[in-house]
Amino acid sequence: MPGTDPSGAWHRPEPSYDRAVIELGHASDRKPPFRYAAYARVGFSDTDAQGVVYYGRYMPYFDLARTEYHRHLGRVTLGGVDFAMRALAVEYLAPARFDDLLEVFVRVSRIGTTSISYDHAAYRIDEGDGEMLMATASTTLVCIALPERRAVQVPETFRQKISEFESS
Predict the structure, then answer these.
(1) How far is CA 29 from CA 4, 37, 97, 106, 166, in A?
(2) What are the residues facing 143 on neighbouring strands?
(3) pTM
(4) What is residue 44's predicted lDDT score, i.e. its pLDDT?
């Protein structure tokens, strides 16, 4: 259970890896340069009064794809560090509606000393009609030491996993 340690610093317990990992995403070569994607279904609560996905609801779709990308690489936690959102830019291209199936692609576009930048692309998948690009996004996350909440270097092991996956 989350809480604080004796110094008063917030911490989250390490998850148990005794059970099988169920991945909600998949490796994909359908949309180069993207190498990974996750499916998301538009829920009723994702839509606004006009019946389309409320613009802010795309962020959870992008988060899901990025989290599943990390899971695919074997990274759910990195000890005492994690990533915090630093910057986000989204472009909306077409309206998604309730019950649409989205395939949300993600890739690492840059790894800096303390940050990682990602590109995202959300496509609506239609039976028989193909697919349509709904939204794109670029995000930058900063690696932080959790107890101090300060920027630290991206762990080398994670950097290597990303490099190996993106170049394979």
Answers:
(1) 43, 9, 26, 12, 11
(2) 83
(3) 0.84
(4) 95
On whether the CB atoms of residues 36 and 105 are closer than 8 A, the answer is yes
Alpha carbons 102 and 131: distance in angstroms, whole number? 9
Q: Mean pLDDT throughout 21-36?
A: 91
* Domains contained in the chain, CATH given: 24-158 (3.10.129.10)
Tokens standing for residue 72:
């695919």
Distance CA 119, CA 62 (A): 9
The backbone torsions φ and ψ at residue 68, rounded to the nearest 5 degrees and listed phi first, read -70, -35
| Residue 70: pLDDT over 50 | yes
Angstrom distance (rounded) from CA 168 to CA 38: 19
User: Rounded CA gap, 23 and 67, in Å?
Assistant: 10
Assess contact for 111 and 159: CB atoms under 8 A: yes
**The two structure tokens encoding residue 139:** 């995000």
- What is the pLDDT, as a whole number, of residue 1? 45
Is residue 128 pLDDT above 90, yes or no? no
